[in-house]
Amino acid sequence: MSGKSSLSVDEKMATVKIKIDKEAHIIVKKEYCRDCKTRPCLVICTAENYRWDEKKDELVFNYEGCLECGACRLICPQDAIDWSYPRGGYGVKFRFG
Amino acid sequence: MDKVTCIVVGAGPAGSTCAFALAQKGIETVLLERGRVPGEKNVASFVLYISVLEKLIPNFRQDLPVERNIVRTDFMYCGKHDTKSLQSYNYRYIDNPMAFTAFRRKFDSWLAQKAADAGVQLINSMKVTDLIKDEGQVVGIKVGQEELYADVVVGADGFHSIVGEKSGLIHEWPPERCLLAVKEVLDLPAEVINERFQLTDGIGCEQGIYCYNLNELDVFSATLYTNLDSVSLAVFARLDELQQKNVHLHEKLDTLKQHPYVHNLIKDATLREYQAHILPDGGRIKPSNLYGNGILLCGESGGITDTDSGMGIPTCMLSGMMAAETIGEAVKKQDFSKNCLKNYLKYLDATALLDMIHTSRKESDYFASENRTEIPKQMETTANLYNRYWESDVDYLSKNSFSVPTELYLALGQYHLPVLLRWPLTTLILLFRFQIRFVGAIKKKLRRRYYEWKKQPIR
Predict the structure, then answer these.
(1) Which of B309, B315, B330, B368 is the most exposed place for a label (fewest CB within 10 A)?
(2) Residues 28-67 in A contacting B (C-alpha not used; CB under 8 Å)
(3) Which domains can be identified in chain B, with CATH numbers?
(4) What does pTM read for this prediction?
């Protein structure tokens, strides 16, 4: 086994090129999240874009770092995540897909 | 008011193939892509089998952007402390390639360009936002405020199909039918790849990896394949499973990378790109929902992919071809109603695709059901047989869990599988089983001799 520990998600995400749109393509109804018991979005997001802010007691997310798998939208038990693809020409650009 | 005969939404393999085939029939077609160039939104999880491409573009080899020609297929079973493998090297494929590795950014652009050369109007950076309907008949699409009318719209816009959703054909997203994948493309010099994978220049290999018990009772599949000077490693897991077990998928990938077998192959590699994608597993929608008034779904949006055999791209392309056939017929009759487009199923049935959809729906229903530890009758006998061979080796098959790779059960059982797509896998797995039996028997014999020898008085 290697002594070198594996990369963090943020380090991994640094390899991905994204053209950021000013318009957010993810809209979350945050009032639903507080009552959500499972919060599967925190686990399912491949870019770990969803995080729980303990201080504010609310969901924080950044749509800019989205890999566009859309898993969050399918898994949300509250249907609180309104996810769609970014506008044409924007979003993730895989060079070696 | 702009009007064309056909709008194809999405310039992936399915969409470009459909548009290309339509252009060959002389049908006016517009192909819309939401990326700035086709392929930049797409992620391949396996190699590219050429069977369908060959049919579509016979001289495709002239300028296809290929990384490596795949002649070797490995099946690896990675446990916590061991690996078992089956290697299949086909020398025939050196001169007559069967599969390639290619980057989708190049391949999809290449295919879309072929379609454009054939007369299709390709428009990039266009995300379709809505459909225009007239008395239940789809008559066009909207991109923001712009409108474009057509006799028929083909939805080839991938997993989160806007066309499928707005037309009402796709209305549910059961997590057990969705497979999430993350992939890493790792930089390695070509010579190092050749040495570690025992390959020569231009020749590559693909590996299907089934991981069991790496972390507790965790079963997941992964693929590893070689590009020219990089290696792609992807892991897959069903959405509902990830949710239940509460793990990040990229953690599974990291676990696999720590496994001695994988580690030796990819050590000192640097990450070139991290990718994620979601794919439909197990025939996502009913076949009767693949068509509607003025609309057809093909490729991933219709769930016409086979995630188990790694034949995703060819099956998508084939569905695109069949959609083009259907539309060709509809244009002749000038009838774009549901009744006429129903012929799509007839065309799909002429290939292995319809069977594939039915079978994988059954499969995913079974594996998603709550009583999946109860092995169904047709699998029971084989499972028992299998258990007997492995009585001594609990590490491989833990008895209290259903942890044998699903492929294995499916291949060994009398489960009906689309033979056309699966025969190589089935043969290999059967071979594997007998090999195990043979080795196991020798092992047992040796052990017995050893104990007999031990009991003897020392002379």
Answers:
(1) B368
(2) 38, 40, 43-44, 46-48, 67
(3) 3-67+102-170+284-363 (3.50.50.60), 177-280 (3.30.70), 377-455 (no CATH)
(4) 0.81
